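A quick aside before the break. I want you to see a complete sequence-to-structure record at least once, exactly as it would be stored in a machine-readable document. Don't worry about memorizing anything.
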Amino acid sequence: MRDHLFPHVHHGFRGQALPLVSFHFPPWQIARRCKPRGNVSFSGVVFEIMSALGRNLNFSYNVTIASSSSLKGQGADVNKKHAAELGEEFADISAISIPWASIAQSIEQKKVWLCIIVCVVTMGPLLMFFHLRSPYYDYHGKRGEGGLNSLHTCVWYMYGALLQQGGRHLPEADSGRILVGTWWLVVLVVVTTYCGNLVAFLTFPQYERAVASLDELLERPAGVSWGVLGGSDLADRLESSDDPRMQALFAGAEKHRDQGERLIRAVRLSRHVYLEWKINLVYLMKRQYVSTNSCDFVLAKEDFWEEKLAMAISANNPYLPIINEQIQRMHKVGLISKWLRQYLPAKDRCSAVTKQTAEVVTHVVNLDDLQGSFFLLALGVCGSLVVVAGELAMHRRRLAAERRLVRPYVP
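That is the input. The structure line, written in tokens, reads:
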């Protein structure tokens, strides 16, 4: 009688301990057996999410290792067996991860040049519009012929600014100054970005990949083969895919029994390409670096499949919208990205080689890199419109006040 009418709104799950089923799949779920008692400790991105959910929704959880997996199991390969445990009554929440990888979508460099040309062509008429509409020059008696009153002069000034040369005429009104100042900031960003990219390209050495994309691999370069771990989740997906490229990839792939020394030696000699989820490849490269103290491997440029991560709960669970809302908040504030960086392998000198290969050699300046400068330019145009509107309003108000004045008659 003294509790809230809707207690879950105020108290969440009221401190209940919910069963959680999981397995070892770093960096998402990490299970470590502690000696000498043999207790198992859990960490990873999924457990960070569960801890945050527990604090926000007022519950705790008890972890159970899935009977179909082990502390050495890979999450993607035990999903099918693990999913059957969701039907058991004890599994209220089950942390199941499906491999995921973000696919970078880039825009061609030609579109950057096209946007710059469009800006140069449109900024000239805009500058002339602000110059002609501003009452500053009429008020001070500086309205004359030539200068920025000409469209040719305005376009030529914007083009000269892009080449960091400027021009003879400068606007004196605040609206024109805001527009020109913003354009110079955009020019500074564009020129600095391209100069920095060019210097980096000429400074760092070029590292050539034997195979950079899936299409190059399917063309069967001379002496290069590829393989996948037999019976793995990735192999099953390739086999059941409707994409002709994936079917051809599976048909020509060698089915490996394990990630043994024979496979590692073939990849190291640039004769073989190993297909695996990117997270697993990152850990494999880290182990090889620790073992040999050399950087012999590099990831391909293209990600041809997407890896996903999810937590499964019982069907028709009424708390699913609440959990999804909490996870979306974690995404927005960047907590999940922070936890992922925390549990990924520490960077080493091989990471620097991979970064130079991926960003210096293959990366070109695209619209994503320069979109901030175009947003800044749009902000400057909007600011100039506001200022010129204010100048016109003040000018009309001054003219209206002068008309209301009673002036003495002067013959």
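Two observations worth writing down. The domain at 210-300 is CATH 3.40.190.10 (D-Maltodextrin-Binding Protein; domain 2). The longest strand covers residues 16-22. We'll return to this after the break.
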